[in-house]
Specification:
383 residues; alpha/beta; Rossmann fold; Hypothetical Protein Yjia, Chain: A,domain 2; 2 domains; 8-stranded mixed β-sheet; 15 helices; 36% helix; globular
Length: 383
């Protein structure tokens, strides 16, 4: 019989550890495994195993390659498997800057865990006093001492956003009611469909049925992401831009700085006229923007290949389908304090091709100067 596993993530170790303590107390016979990665760049990791009575095992382990992937593969999974015979619930408490998706997929798809363990929840724990500032922070993890590998160049805010958006449940910890309310208002924009609770009250459950990790990934993947809707909560705004017409690469590039500096978080999918067969992903947080090629639009594939795509991908394409442009769509979502909705929409609309440019067709579009090429063509070369 397989044993349930819960992943607990979060940048804030005190709040995260307190939630793990509560899980251990609520589930007699449960065991938590945590890897401290402060020295991971030198290949050293400290493993702590505990239950409600205290520490069961504390060891420093040496890894051939200091990274999260080898920590999970070489130590976390073996540890969980070794304790499944006596544990009612296994808790994987992740290091501060570890993103839960990679761990969830490793646990779900590893050949040794498929029939032995089943993932029932991905919980992200937040500190209400700091989360609203950190989501706007342009510091790298190294500046906070939260590296997950020697070459880790990620930003604090991008990790925080992914921990929030991937979670199946969120818990907010804090002493001040005002901080908690502001944090929950922010979460209502970033992850509006995710159950959210407060540490000192009954938190959302993460020990129910097994999670479909493939569907969990589809919630955040650019081609299938369940993006937030238009919303206004006190001073926090979410603005949705949804159009069909192609974007002019030069005009969009010139608008990027204004779009990302005036907003806190934005993401979505879009298409450029000169790359009309490619679905492009937009991901920006705290002023740092990433534009990536996320593969072909479904319409660019032979119909025979559609069945090879996931049900979530085909469903998303069906929902976006239009007679003229098939599943090509501009769908970007922006969140921030007191956003000027009309200004954002007007700026993005000004980046679209005019009717005359649209009628010129793709043969003309391919000749457009493309300032995104240095990013997108480099990705294609690297692949």
């Amino acid at each position: 019989m397989s044993v349930p596993v819960v992943i607990v993530s979060g940048l804030y170790p005190v709040a995260r550890s307190a939630r793990v303590d509560r899980l251990l107390a609520e589930h007699p016979g449960s065991v938590a495994v945590h890897h401290d990665l402060r020295e991971v760049s030198s290949g050293r990791v400290e493993r702590v195993v505990r239950d409600t009575a205290g520490v069961l095992d504390l060891q420093e382990i040496q890894l051939a390659h200091g990274c999260v992937t080898c920590t999970v593969r070489e130590d976390l999974i073996p540890q969980l498997l070794s304790r499944m015979g006596s544990a009612s619930l296994l808790i994987a408490e992740l290091w501060d800057s570890v993103e839960p998706r990679a761990v969830a997929e490793a646990l779900a798809w590893h050949e040794d865990t498929v029939h032995a363990l089943h993932l029932t929840g991905v919980l992200t724990v937040l500190d209400a006093e700091h989360v609203t500032d950190d989501i706007c922070c342009d510091e790298r993890l190294a500046q906070r001492g939260k590296l997950a590998a020697a070459d880790d160049e990620r930003y604090l805010a991008e990790v925080l956003a992914r921990q929030i958006e991937y979670a199946t449940a969120i818990v907010v910890s804090g002493a001040e009611e005002e901080d908690i309310e502001l944090a929950r208002a922010l979460l209502g924009h970033l992850a509006p469909t995710t159950p959210t609770g407060v540490l000192d009250s009954a938190p959302p459950s993460v020990t129910g049925a097994e999670i479909d990790v493939e569907m969990l990934g589809a919630r955040v993947d650019p081609a299938t992401a369940q993006l937030p809707c238009d919303a206004q909560t006190d001073e926090i705004s979410t603005v949705v831009w949804h159009r069909l017409r192609a974007l002019h690469p030069q005009r969009l590039f010139e608008a990027v700085d204004e779009l990302v500096t005036e907003t806190v978080r934005s993401r979505g999918r879009f298409w450029l006229a000169n790359r009309h067969e490619r679905l492009l992903a937009w991901d920006a947080v705290a002023g740092i923007v990433s534009v990536e090629d996320a593969g072909p639009w479904l319409a660019a594939l032979p119909e025979a290949a559609w069945e090879m795509e996931s049900p979530a991908r085909r469903m998303a394409a069906t929902l976006d389908w239009s007679p003229a442009l098939d599943d090509r769509v501009q769908h970007l979502v922006f969140t921030g304090p007191d956003l000027d909705r009309d200004r954002i929409l007007s700026l993005l609309d000004s980046c679209l091709l005019t009717e005359e440019e649209m009628l010129a067709g793709s043969d003309i579009w391919t000749g457009y100067q493309d300032p995104f090429a240095f990013i997108l063509d480099l990705e294609e070369t690297s692949a």
